[in-house]
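Section 3.1 - Work completed
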Amino acid sequence: MKKLIAFVSVSLALAVSAADGVGVRYRGVFINDEDWGLRPWCKARFGKERGICAEAYREIFADMKSRGVNLLWPAMHPGAYEFVSRKENMDAAREAGITIGTSHCEPMLRNNCYWNKKELGVWDYSENKSGIDAYWKWSVDNYGDYDCLWTIGIRGIHDEGMKGPKDVEGRIKLMENVFAAQKAMLGPKRPTVFCPYKEVLPLYDAGLKVPDDTTLLWVDDNFGYCRRLGGPNAEGRRQGIYWHASYFGGPHSYTHVCTTPPAFMWYQLVARCWENGVRDMWVVNVGDYYPADVSIYALGQLGANPAAWGVDSHKKLLSGYVASLGMSGKAASRTVRLLDEYYRLGWTRKPELMSAQWAGALPKEERAALDAQYAAFGKRLDDTLSLIPKKKRDRFFAIHGYSARLLVIAGRYFMAWADANGNDEARQKLEEKVRSELAVLDAEVASVEGGRWKNFWWDTTTEKRQETRWFSGGKGVNGWASQMQWPWNEPEGMRPKDRCTVYLADPWIAAARMRDAADCVATKQVNGGGWKEVYGLGASYRAMALLPVRPGVGKGAEITFEIEAKEGEKALVLQFLPDMRLYPGEKLRVEVSVNGGERFAVEVPGSDGREDENGWTRRYAVQDGFIRTAKRGVLKPGKNRVTVYGLDAGVVLDKIGVR
């Protein structure tokens, strides 16, 4: 108990320290894809309107403050109302001390999905400069004295590409004209941010001049792997990162359930971003907010004083989070263990990325082992909930218990579906069973805390709600935005490699015998850095990262393995986190020597930053949580001594094996 109290005290001190310039200035969350979770919940709880009302925002603001988070990008999907159109929302934020900003496609606080083309003209700055300028000026006139972070630039309507000139030179000129008009409205003292996202990033790389006092907001790949940071050309200016713990879109979604481990957040936001000057703004897409509670807590703690956190952050963050819920003693320790196992299984496969193709491609022994782990986790969940006092248990179950039980139901179901091996009768019974279990779970969550969470996890088993186009074939997957890929709703004619896994993409490399990179025999630091085990990171859950993540640091650092190869096993297989090079123009490589032989370079596949979300690595490897590559013909039968040398900043070696 004393340790937990001490940790909470330290956490509060860290939150204060950020205000003194120790940490990240803006630690923000983006409520996004709220149509299926927060909206129906707010409607049921607070009133009849479709949207998130000021009363709900007040609760969220209070929760943000308790978590050390100080910036909100409000919900912005069409079909409700524009956040800034209601002054009571802005007043609630001001009272709570929360800064309001807007996403990359909402310049100048305006959510342009509510742009009225008939009254205001086309959304094209090259044709309607005066109309768009007047639209933006409204925000400055009404909220210029509020605490706001002003997004500048222009894109299309609601995340569409920007309109106007097609050539790069013309687009750059238009964007610079936009900057000039916006900065003239805002003046020199109001803080601004520019996010070079999608079609806008090539303009920046081609020489777009962004105002010197504007924060450059980089982006990840929607799965938490940073696409690029600024590099030397961004030194001396403010930088930030827009990062995802939730994502709705192609080629696959993961929303409404949060399985992002705190260790992954530490590695990407602190080890990569903070260490390389991305220190002004971290904003995380948290979807429907409440299911990402641990991620929001981790954001506040890591951002308050990044230098205070290291490779042991994962369990410390989980312990601090559980203590913040008021738990202590046996209930607290068991809850920390439960969450730890939840994130481990969630990294193995996010529930919304489970599919018949994935389960069917797993070796039978691996399916059996996973099924046993899901079953054990389900028992641990029940045992842990029995230890938590009822008042705390109900809220914990509503937020975390649903996600955890869904992980168990889905994991065991997909393993059994694959084991049924085409037996239609067995699969029909499985479908009936899982629908029944989900209905019971929905009813249980809707009943706790006096019905407070009714409609938050609503309607997971029917198709009454809005049909989705993602993986649905127009039929509706299950009426739920989390995109669970239940086999009974799979589109006809799906290609075998859709929703791919390494087992389908490359069966040869999938059959390699792998071991954790943390099971090395020796490490050696060189050039101020070395290989460090990060608990909670990677498919091994204890991956080895080359730290600190800075160019040139750790170059030549050694990690050595003794590997036994059987007759015919001549290929060395390396498994990495599917990350990208740190800066444009750089690479993400290691060097390898086998049995004292000449070193050869190995590049992390897909790490050059050229792929969009439909590229092979970004489409498939992010679902597995790892990427593999092999060097053939380098091993001999019997014992082999393999040394991996650090070469480029940002490499995480997860496993090593033979084939």
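Second construct:
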Amino acid sequence: MARTPGAPANHGTAAGADSPGPPAAVTRTIGRPLLPFAITTAGAFASSFLPGADVVARDMALALVALAGTAVLAALALRWPRGSLRVAAAVAYLVFVVFLVLGQGNLGSGSFALALLPVLWTGLFGTAVESAAITLATVAAIALLAVFGRQAVVVTIRRSALWGVVAAGVSVALHQLRTWFDASLAERNASLRESEILSGAVKELTSLRTEAAVVEAATRVAGQLCSPAGGTPRRSVYFAVDGANAHILARFDEAGGAGAGTIALADHPPLAQVVSTLKPVTTSFEAVTLGPSVGPTVVRSGLTHGAAVPVMVGGVLHGVLAVGGRNEPVYATDRLVDLAGIVELALANAKANEALAAQAATDPLTRCANRRGLLQAARLLPGRRPFAVIAADLDGLKGLNDRLGHEAGDGVLTRFADSVRSVLRTGDTCARIGGDEFIILAHEADRDGAVRLAERILAAMAGEPTGVSLGIATARDPDAFDLAVEQADQAMYRAKREGGRRYCVASPVALAS
């Protein structure tokens, strides 16, 4: 699988410019790259003083000065990577080699082979331009020695050409090796990063208990998974398909940007292909192929490539997880498929948990909330917003059960629950808390709104053999919910004492606010 190459490996350790000195770890890091060069140089220099050597003291002294300068420049170049420092260190070493050969008094000695060390240095730690510069400097050093030794021009040209070819070959080989190594390291790091993201996704997604939370987290993970470290951030979207349209349930984009909440499938051919084939798709975006509900968003967001995978739950398409790339393809599509499998398991788990939670908070006969469901709804009340509590109790249900049986009574309870649900707004709650006792919680409802709701409930129950008595209480403070229930219950009993089939309103003075 192709991947985006990472940045070249850092062969030196950078430290802050204001630090008092290199710590031990930095010193060791600098010493390791220089050690092979130092050992080779020390051996070549020591060989100059073997028996029979005719050493020129002045040239040897100059060689030592050049070598000391090389060591300083090389250490600086490794600690603060700069091309100028690396080239300066390599040139200083070539000067050392020239004076070493002159100090040995034998231009034909093998010591000039040390000139390959700067080539190795720039090949390992420098750029291709630096290597080319040092190759030319090596040829220049050959020419300089030829001048000192009064060698024939033909010999000088032949030696310079030979050394130039050797230096160039070594440089090319080292740079190719570094490119391969950096690519392999980037591949390994990318694989480790993707594995870590997927491992974290398994733990996170399987711990979530709602479909909405799973979809939101999966969309974020998809964007992170398919975004190369340090690269251009990608955009990820989770689509729910409804007939000819796709609705965006979640969106993640580190670069910002929004888009339409609903798009037409016909305007997004790659997405339509995933929906029709239920198979992953990778594509590149062309504005002319995208419809009006998609094209402007793609152009505005800078998306050029995309990948999408279906998410199946129970053999049915739950949604499509899509990732858009900017200026480069989405490479980690196989990982995206792996993520989709994790999401499918997490969604199935979340659906099961939601079903169990709903069952635990629902009255099985009327399908209203039970007492637990009512308390859950009360915990969601916003602060300093009006709400109303209506206590309801069916009139004469016990007599109906005695005359016609409990099945008839259950029918009345079910029809009452259906009637209440038909007049409630989305977000309001009707809960059965006893045999024939109900509590209705209405958000954003003041006294007048609660009265209108009670009148609609009474009208819906007008044709039933049993009536209903209602008690109304209103409040603003969520902490007053229990008190509102108590006041509504007292008002309901007052309505029942007054003959039933009516409502009574608790005095607002008695309620906390």
